[in-house]
Amino acid sequence: MWLKRKYGYEIVLCGGNSDRHDALKFRKYYVGEYLDLVGKTSLVELLYVIYNADLMISNETSAPHLAVALGNPKVFVISNGNHYGRFVPYPKDITENYYVIYHPEIEKDLDNYKKLSNSYGYRSNLDINEISVESVIEKIEKVLKWAYIALNLTAKDELLKKAREKLVGEFDSIVVAKKYVEVYKELLNGHLK
User: Fold this and answer.
1) What is the CATH number of domain 2-131?
2) Which end of the chain has fewer CB atoms within 10 angstroms, the N or the C?
3) Tell me: the pLDDT tens digits for 87-121?
């Protein structure tokens, strides 16, 4: 799976006993290593797995809502739009880390909340299997890319602060700018390799 290969995420498959058939299908198509906990966890154990996860990918079940409550940093939900407006989209003041990959029929109308909530607020007959793997990967990649950029900007801000602190005591104001660039490059090369 590209998440493990590209980002180093360990894959943990969770679900209830009724999901065993799907877990067997997953095993048939996935050739890498993963931990299969399908049908093997209590609710408390599932909460522990979710709490310790860096990222969750799920369909519309209670698990993503538990992940939000537990503060999971990235929750991705594959949705046919069932209960649109009732449970999703999450208000930004509750979480900004809940990302939904909707059925293409919903994706094309995302700017029309009223239409979507009236159409899918209580039931959706759209086939979740019509959501392509490519659209799921695209959404996750987009979010992870921005998270990576934000992380690096934070790291660079910290390096800039260290460079300024180092220069204050060592140089007078005339040469600070020139030395600042040198020290920053030195710190950047040493810390972001």
Assistant:
1) 3.40.50.2000
2) C
3) 777 778 888 888 888 888 888 888 888 888 888 87
